[in-house]
Amino acid sequence: MTALALQMPQRYPRSFLLAAALVWLGLYLSLVPLSEAIVAALPVDRTSHLGAALQFFLYDAPKVLLLLTAVVFAMGMINSWFTPERTRALLAGRREGVANVMAASLGIVTPFCSCSAVPLFIGFVQAGVPLGVTLSFLVAAPMVNEVALVLLFGLFGWKIALLYLSLGLSVAIVAGWVIGRMKMERHLEDWVREMPQLRAQAPSDQLVLADRIDAGFASVRTIVGKVWPYVLAGIAIGAAIHGWVPQDFMASFMGKDAWWSVPLAVVIGVPMYANAAGIIPIVQALLAKGAALGTVLAFMMSVIALSLPEIVILRKVLKPRLIATFVGVVASGILLVGFIFNAAL
Q1: pLDDT of res. 238
Q2: Terminal CA-CA length for the chain
Q3: Which of 89, 294, 336, 341 is 20–30 Å from 157 (CA)?
Q4: Which residues of the chain have pLDDT under 50?
Q5: pLDDT tens profile 213-260
Q6: Quick one: pLDDT at residue 344?
Q7: Could you give the 3-state DSSP secondary structure of residue 105?
Q8: What integer pLDDT is reported at residue 112 of this predicted model?
Q9: Distance separating alpha carbons of residues 319 and 185, to the nearest angstrom
Q10: Closest-CA residue to 139 (of 162, 107, 167)
Q11: How far is the C-alpha of 268 from the C-alpha of 48, rounded, in Å?
Q12: How many CB atoms within 10 Å of residue 160?
């Protein structure tokens, strides 16, 4: 093992990460002139609806994919420290309150999504992690993930990204704490409550830099390879909104003046299935067409944190009353976020 570990760093030169970053930056900086040049070369009027939509798509598609690749690679390296076993070990035995904050924070840097909700939930229960703490993690992991934050930063700037981070964490922490205070463990499915508890132990870590670079590449192959169709579909929808939807039309039912816009956004968002990479380009187009920030944030958070597929998956381990409480508490937090920011901004 030691001899193998000593050989592993030789797979990549010491300057590999720096060179890769410079290549990535060069590609990123060329996107605006390249997209404009391609549209100019096409038999399309740049000022027409089609011209505007094409430029939006040709610029945003490579931009989002570049951002997605970079953040997934970096987080793949970071996630090599945060295995499910280590995450359970960090949360097991913690008191509620502080543990809710820890769980929500860990949700940002861990690579778990709604598809892994049931095995994670079972593992947390077996490790003795309180129900409310587990739910804080399960809300934060899909909603406040590294992909959402980096794409928001790239598309809207650090203020909106930081705003989303603080709001998402607040919803996850408060929702988990409230459900924990309600003592609803009896509403877990019987087979889950009867499972024997296991002692959570953090595994030993003998990975070197080359292993973590390999983990980054593996994350890119797995995650980007899975979500790129959703990304392109989301950008195509966003391009259509950008090119053809009148600004007054979008502002009429997603603007600040329509008090019912936030509840409607949540109701529309819950049945949808999309990840952050697919929904954020649509969010960008909605904002550009006059939709209110609070309404759009509520829509985005409901799509990511309260997706119907995740609710169906969680039904395997939660009884209907606990499912309803979970959805109600998280939805209330999202509604509050939407109303506050529509009033303040």
Answers
A1: 72
A2: 57
A3: 336
A4: 1-9, 200-202
A5: 888 888 788 767 776 887 787 778 777 776 776 656 655 666 666 778
A6: 72
A7: helix
A8: 56
A9: 10
A10: 107
A11: 30
A12: 16
Contacts of 180 (CB under 8 A, 6+ apart): 96, 100, 130, 131, 132, 133, 135
CB-count burial class (<10 Å; 0-12, 13-18, 19+) for 199: exposed
Rounded Cα gap, residues 4 and 126, in angstroms: 35
Residue 264 has which token pair? 């409607």
Tokens of 266: 């949540």
pTM: 0.61
Q: Which H or E element spans position 295?
A: helix 293-305
Q: Is 80 helix (H, G, I), strand (E, B) or coil?
A: coil
Give the C-alpha separation, 139 to 334, whole Å: 11
pLDDT at 23: 92
Distance CA 167, CA 160 (A): 10
Q: How many CA atoms lie less than 13 Å away from 95 in the CB half-sphere?
A: 2
CA angle 262, 173, 295 (to 5 degrees): 15
- The answer to whether 184 and 319 have CB atoms below 8 angstroms apart is no
Distance CA 151, CA 167 (A): 16
CA dist., res. 114 & res. 140, Å (int): 11
pLDDT at 114: 53
One-letter amino acid at 69 equals: T
Show the tokens assigned to 296: 């759009």
